[in-house]
Amino acid sequence: MALDRLKQTAAIVSGDTGPPYPLDPLTEAEIETAVAIIRKEHNGLFFNTVTLWEPRKAEMMAWLQDPKGTPRPHRVADVVAVGRGSKVYDGIVDLTEGKIVSWQLTEGVQPLITMEDLQIVESIVRKDPKVIEQCGIIGIPPEDMDKVYCDPWTIGYDERFGSNVRLQQALMYYRPHIDDSQYSYPLDFCPIFNADTQEIIHIDIPPVRRPVNKAPPSNYHTAAIEAEGGYRTDLKPINITQPEGVSFKMDGRIISWQNWKLHIGFNYREGLVLSNITFNDKGNERPTFWRLSLAEMVVPYGNPEHPHQRKHAFDLGEYGGGYMTNSLSVGCDCKGAIHYMDASFVNRAGQATTIKNAICIHEEDAGILFKHTDFRDNSCTVTRARKLIISHIFTAANYEYCVYWIFHQDGTIQLEIKLTGILNTYAMNPDEDTNGWGTQVYPGVNAHNHQHLFCLRIDPNIDGPENTVYQVDATRSDAPVGSDENKYGNAFYAKKTRFENPVQAQSDYNAATSRTWDICNENKLHPYSGKPVSYKLVSREVPELMPKEGGLVWKRAGFARHAVHVTKYDDDQIHPAGRHVPQTSGEPSQGLPAWIAANPTANIANTDIVLWHTFGLTHFPAPEDFPVMPAEPMSLLLRPRHFFLRNPCLDVPPSYCSVPSGVEQGGALVDKISRLAFREGS
Amino acid sequence: MALDRLKQTAAIVSGDTGPPYPLDPLTEAEIETAVAIIRKEHNGLFFNTVTLWEPRKAEMMAWLQDPKGTPRPHRVADVVAVGRGSKVYDGIVDLTEGKIVSWQLTEGVQPLITMEDLQIVESIVRKDPKVIEQCGIIGIPPEDMDKVYCDPWTIGYDERFGSNVRLQQALMYYRPHIDDSQYSYPLDFCPIFNADTQEIIHIDIPPVRRPVNKAPPSNYHTAAIEAEGGYRTDLKPINITQPEGVSFKMDGRIISWQNWKLHIGFNYREGLVLSNITFNDKGNERPTFWRLSLAEMVVPYGNPEHPHQRKHAFDLGEYGGGYMTNSLSVGCDCKGAIHYMDASFVNRAGQATTIKNAICIHEEDAGILFKHTDFRDNSCTVTRARKLIISHIFTAANYEYCVYWIFHQDGTIQLEIKLTGILNTYAMNPDEDTNGWGTQVYPGVNAHNHQHLFCLRIDPNIDGPENTVYQVDATRSDAPVGSDENKYGNAFYAKKTRFENPVQAQSDYNAATSRTWDICNENKLHPYSGKPVSYKLVSREVPELMPKEGGLVWKRAGFARHAVHVTKYDDDQIHPAGRHVPQTSGEPSQGLPAWIAANPTANIANTDIVLWHTFGLTHFPAPEDFPVMPAEPMSLLLRPRHFFLRNPCLDVPPSYCSVPSGVEQGGALVDKISRLAFREGS
Ligand SMILES: [Co+2]
Ligand SMILES: [Co+2]
User: Fold this and answer.
1) Where does the record place the Copper amine oxidase N2-terminal domain (chains A, B) (predicted)?
2) I need a labelling partner for B407 at 20 to 30 A (CA). Which of A346, A487, A639, A661 fits?
């Protein structure tokens, strides 16, 4: 098998069957080739990551400009492996040349926790005598240890254990029956697992014990719903069909749709990576964003009681949004005509594995695109909108994150995230005081306050890589009411603050001024407005980071201190909380704070820049979120402003068009499928 | 015709054919009956409004409690009429008893401007010699006066003319061809129209003249698009069908859908009014909101240059969101299986008129309702969501407002508003400096900065009328980082501020603290969380009112000074900028500020209250908004918190359900209609 793949790779890199596009994720064959190349020189390794080392931006842009006259970027693998004694190796392997480019032992770091790392813990926990003892204390007999479960989390950081030993904390649960939701039965103690020795090295035990919950199960599976009277029967089907197929085209992983064109990448960590996004503006393929991805996230919990003070998760940096991604299915996760893409990763043993249907691509009707009626004569144009959705869903232990990148015909890019899944829960004695740090969502179940903060990495390319960010605030005129300049007091304007360096660019959200951030190309002015071509970041779910300045999460999640950071582009700056996130102490802070501190006065105006945007929501749990949470949506927009000469979607065929003259207008495309719900008069 | 209707009404009020539901809008017959009753006593009237005078809340609630033992609320008409000399009469007519209940001359007010009032102006303007002269000055010869158009607006307020003469300002435009968009050809002067004398009494002329625009037309009708190469041809159809019909039922104007039940009203002013909204919670029909409506809005413009300083529109109070509503059509405005409702109004002559298909009711698939996968074994439940949408669209001269009331299966009510249509534009000389007050969106076309601020009237009924509002802010613990109480600095909680009186309840938005407002019933605590049953207002598009304190808009639009006001319920407090809005000076401020000033210490805790929420957006125009604006959406949520025992939609049939035990689970409802986009492997 591995040999076959080696041959395939050889064929690919020699060009016999056409090579992957430079931004494509590594194929299964390439992954196994990288492993084989490393194993020629290094033994006894477990593999943590083998992923595409993306072409350097300058190299990639040069090749795109002149693919024939410029060397094709090599296929290169970025490798993290763990050797004996938990030694961590970072390596780069050039697959095109078949050789290791760099290989280094990296001290004092912990690479992310893979699904395999996670799955080991539960079986160890069940057999550990100290865990069995603790289970006994709260009412679980030794013969029921098969009913004990755990969600292993990285430890985050705990100063008692530091960063050198690879640790997981086991959030403990119980299931009376295998199909019962364990989140109704949280256990009150927390074992600490040493991944090197594969043993429990400590158990955090609360001063007040909480016997295992005696409440009945709270389930949502079919058997439970049927036992309570069954499913509702009053939902009639809505069928969505695309008899002529989809409106997008795929060329490998490059999608074209409604003037948009982009490359769809995917990696173990960020999940979806959208690159070289262009918009065909009347024949002119104009760049908009070089690369968009969710680069990091942090979920800080708000309970300071030991050991919950350390509970927070960097779901991307500590576990990987790609590694945790779901295999999707037609008609369940998406409706209509669906195109899926798979995702391939390395496993611990160095073999390639593939998640089928990791990425979903589909279109949806999007309601009214534009409409106007002349009130004089009711002449009217109404045009319906279509949207393209590129999505994946990942499961981070209890939570589900559904990530939708949505492209609109008007040049807008929308990122929508839906949160669903299950609350992280902790044990409480019946009607124990939660001290305001959580909510009893079910008898004996305490769901702690928390935030979900996402860091969107925006690498803009607004008509070219030289871009500038302005903060824009609706601002009242200084002139007083009654003055000649402002008689009625109505004057207001868009106050623009130009970001010159990364320190000055650290900025927070202000809803009062409708604050947005404009990403401009100052070298190109709109012929009508005279303003730089730009995309505007419109994001309204932007709370402050609740953990305090100087505290653990504040130190570790430097990206979350401000809504916006801007840095000068650097090929190596992808991960805003650092490359290896688990067990970082935050001293010094990795990622964004370190990069900014290293060059606080770097010029970020009219140059190649990256905008890092942290947004999200604050979640005070309620019983409605239990036992499974109805999806909570959150959305932001990147909107073209002064970018197009005018509305760029006027040529979308209208549903209806009439004009004041009454002259016949062609092109009316009334949907003949839709119907009245009831017969006339009923 | 009118006599027939009188008979119908007689039949209805005598109960022969079943009377309208007390909250139903007046029928055509009832409208004409009201007019006939008034005309028996009063002559020479033009009718401005004949609309339902809604039953008093106490009376209506008593009747709902005991429909047999309590008198049915009478059918009553609320009438505004204009007599000779622009005298304004406010009247109430009891249709059940066939008599006038009250009739009064109201001094110093102007009722709203109807579509008929608006349509008179253009023909007068075209014939006015002073207007013809001004047209000549900017390059329009007298023989082209048929190419001159105007959008008549109320004057707002202009201290030169005061409130006693009924005025409109004519925003002037030109069309080279009847089908050309006039908003590319704004004229630089502004005639003032006296509605009593039907003549132009003044023209505001700018110091610097701007000849009529010489730019070519900027159109979006079919002929224009075809002249430029035609419509795009790469959109394949998406068909939405409901072969078994819709999932909602109509009983008159009461709709039932997915445990929701509510009455759908409609009036000339607020448009949609949703009343007595209940949610069937396992057989218990629980009240949530007594009445929801968009009660007012204001669009202040930000240019202080004369005469633009007075440009602002109260689209509901000055024109009527119902009066301006569109007649909708299947497949254009909505797709799927649609139920429409008509809307009837009075005209100037006292006859009933009806807008067909004024209200659209339909369902849509709403993506994932909830999903969770167990990472151990990939057992998974995924359930798709459905939403019910009750909508109307109104055209306010240049702008379109699409109002969508969306009901979700999880008990959430969402209000989404889409803005589309055309920017209000003013003339500019080519590349004239806009001084920051506007944008040249097309050569010679200046679109001024503005806001769209909506006032949502929330009359809550959270398990009964006695409700309390809390402001909720995510707040960090006071304990310092490193202290025993907050070692890692992560502690945060939901700080709740109870609103006790209307002055204290005046509150602004704070994105930093994820501020929400909880509408609670303190008399009913959730059995698990111990917290009052509540609905949470989650609204994130909440800029400050830009016009300055003490200025005209600040005075006239008192509701927009704060994001939230709370008042004690009063049957007569429906219109937050006052009953008659045109030409109010704001001295004193009408509506909310007057009500609060009248009783600043009224108790608003644990009593019958109304929450007034102002939200919206700030619009700095860009060329992409021209010549017609791609829809810009805005959304807020009312979410149940501590209201349901648990997630109330667990019994929605899943698309897929598997369990860890592998035991067969019934009820899986995978959509068999959806398909892969491409053949396998392509
Ligand atoms: Co949450
Ligand atoms: Co606008």
Assistant:
1) 22-104
2) A639
Q: Which pLDDT score, from 0 to 100, does residue B582 have?
A: 96
**pLDDT under 50 in chain A at which residues?**
1-16, 681-682
CA–CA distance, B623 with B444 (Å, rounded to integer)? 12
Ligand with minimal distance to B299 CA: 2
φ and ψ at residue A112, rounded to 5 degrees: -65, 165
In angstroms, the CA B516 to CA B471 distance is: 6
Q: How far off is chain B from A73, nearest CA to CA, in Å?
A: 26
Q: What is the CATH class of A115-214? A: alpha beta
CA distances from B223 to A281, A551, A576 (A): 21, 64, 51
User: A407 vs chain B: nearest CA distance in angstroms?
Assistant: 14
Contact with chain B for residue A227, Cβ under 8 A: no
Residues A258 and B234: beta-carbon distance below 8 Å = yes
CATH 2.70.98.20 fits B249-275+293-422+450-461+501-509+546-619+628-639, yes or no: yes
pLDDT tens track for B419-463: 999 999 999 998 799 999 999 999 999 999 999 999 999 999 999
Give the chain A residue nearest B482 (alpha carbons). A551
Instruction: State the DSSP code for A507.
Output: B
Q: Is B157 helix (H, G, I), strand (E, B) or coil?
A: coil
Would you state the pLDDT for residue A5? 46
Residue from the list B241, B331, B660 with its beta carbon closest to the beta carbon of A178: B660
**Residue A372 to residue B381, Cβ atoms within 8 A:** no
What distance in angstroms lies between residue A632's CA and the mean position of ligand 1's atoms? Answer: 9
The whole-number pLDDT of residue A669 equals 61
Told to judge if B315 belongs to the known catalytic residues of this protein, a careful annotator would answer yes
Contact status of B544 with chain A (Cβ, < 8 Å) = yes
Would you call B31 helix, strand, or coil by DSSP? Answer: helix
Residue B673 one-letter amino acid:
I
Chain A residues with beta carbon closer than 8 angstroms to that of B380 = 326
For A329-386, the pLDDT digits (tens) are: 887 888 899 999 999 999 999 999 999 999 999 999 999 999 999 999 999 999 999 9
Matching residue, tokens 């991944």 = A195
In CATH terms, are A2-106 and A115-214 the same topology? yes
Most B CBs within 10 A among A357, A371, A386, A554, hence the mutation to make, goes to A371
Of A634, A615, A497, nearest in space to A559 by CA: A615
User: A2-106 in CATH: which number?
Assistant: 3.10.450.40
Domain ranges of chain B: 2-104, 115-216, 249-275+293-422+450-461+501-509+546-619+628-639
A258: contact with B, CB 8 A cutoff: yes
Instruction: State the best of A492, A529, A531, A541 to mutate against chain B, taking most chain B CBs within 10 Å.
Output: A492
Whether residue A507 lies within 8 A of chain B, CB to CB, comes out as no
From ligand 2's centre to the CA of B619, what distance in Å?
A: 5
Amino acid at B519: I
Nearest CA-CA partner of B379 in A221, A632, A630: A221
Residue A59 phi/psi, 5° resolution?
A: -65, -45
Which CATH class for the B115-216 domain?
alpha beta
Chain B contacts in chain A segment 317-356 (CB below 8 A): 324, 326-327, 329-340
Give pLDDT tens digits for B375-426.
999 999 999 999 999 999 999 999 999 999 999 999 999 999 999 999 999 9
CATH number of A250-368+385-422+450-465+499-619+627-640: 2.70.98.20
d(CA B92, CA A620): 48
* CATH architecture designation of domain B2-104: Roll (3.10)
Is any Cβ of chain A less than 8 angstroms from the Cβ of B471?
no
Inform me whether the C-beta atom of residue B244 falls under 8 Å from chain A C-beta atoms: yes
Instruction: Flag if B440 and A385 touch (Cβ within 8 Å).
Output: no
Q: Crossing angle of helices A115-127/A129-137, nearest 10°? A: 70
